[in-house]
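User: Can you write out an input/output pair for a complex, sequences first and structure second?

Assistant: Here is one pair. Inputs:
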Amino acid sequence: MNIDSIKNGIVIDHIKAKNGMKIYEALNLKELQCSVAIITNAKSQKMERKDIIKIDKEFDINLDALGFIDPDITINIVKDGKIIEKKHIEKPEKIINIVKCKNPRCITCVEKELDQIFILTDKEKNIYRCKYCEMRMN
Amino acid sequence: MKHLIDIKDLSVEEIKDLIEVANDIIHSREKYSHKCDGKKLATLFFEPSTRTRLSFEAAMLELGGNVIGFSSANSSSTSKGESVSDTIRTVGCYADIIAMRHPKEGAALVASEKSIVPIINAGDGGHNHPTQTLTDLLTIQCEKSRLSDLTIGLCGDLKFGRTVHSLITAMSRYKNIKFILISPTELKIPEYIKEEVLKKNKIEFKETKDIEEYMNDLDILYMTRVQKERFFNEEDYVRLKDYYILNEEKLKKAKKNLCIMHPLPRVNEISKEVDEDPRAAYFRQVEYGKYIRMALILKMLEVH
């Protein structure tokens, strides 16, 4: 399967297999006015199987969203067909408007203008809690 | 400016100071009767709670201050669709301090983010109710003369009971505290309280369904009501509401100096005959609630 290399843009690599579409949606890539390729289940020496997203345009990427979904990914910035920068990301301390609180008793469920904020309360166990009701995210 | 949203907002030292002031108020009430002259407390109760609202209002009136506010969402602009933030910004122009109760969890934190005056969370749904916890701490201090070296039985709705969760969190900061968690399976303490508070702080605890099993070990027995408003399913509520009824028979094995507490209102979980038992502290607990709220208002208004 061949997908042309990009000249100027971003390659999101080492995405855990099946996380590609989640990232596509979280970054709202369907709104971009450029080519976007999602490769799923690609063979990988490191990971056995992985997803890759190639975006034929430079843009400000939401690193918190990426770190939250899959902190092991690599972001490659491509210029003139060459990788000029590799970014590794971490689990963000706080995520804003990436997921919604599912607690029907939470204030964010009735006051829709409030940001949906989750705080990383336990780094080791990867537990995020709603800033307002403190309910754990599933 | 500081707000009180969660009992964890207060350090052990700050709680000690509040208890000391509350104790001083109990013994010298006259000294405090004009401390808040000219100040206004707004009680914004988006859901009804006579007890907590009256306790706040009585506290402010005893300090010489005045009270404004509403006691249900229907009589506020919420019924016209106003947000919590807008209500708080408006009321901040009229009052020096706000005590707020709201049915939604996290509402008090939202309020504190926009408020120009101190906010006291007077209960946000099933989430936090820090002044109830302060009331409980003052009660324990006054009745047992200590906040350490205690075996505390918590009985009833340990799943939805916010007072129980806050009390466990608060008491976990004191030395040699043991908990006996008494509840039906359906209303057991949530796993996260066990993991993130009890186990994390190495607090000894036992779980049982039987209220009498550890009765003779207890220094404090904290009874709770099964709250109808926390259930989505009426059937579950009906099945569980009378699971425990504390009576003199069940207290036979209890220590002579046991302290029986309840955040009130009670329904059937404590038989009326227990009211006459000197170990029943729950009506004294109501009074302690007023004194600790007086101390809190003074602290938050920075009145000395």
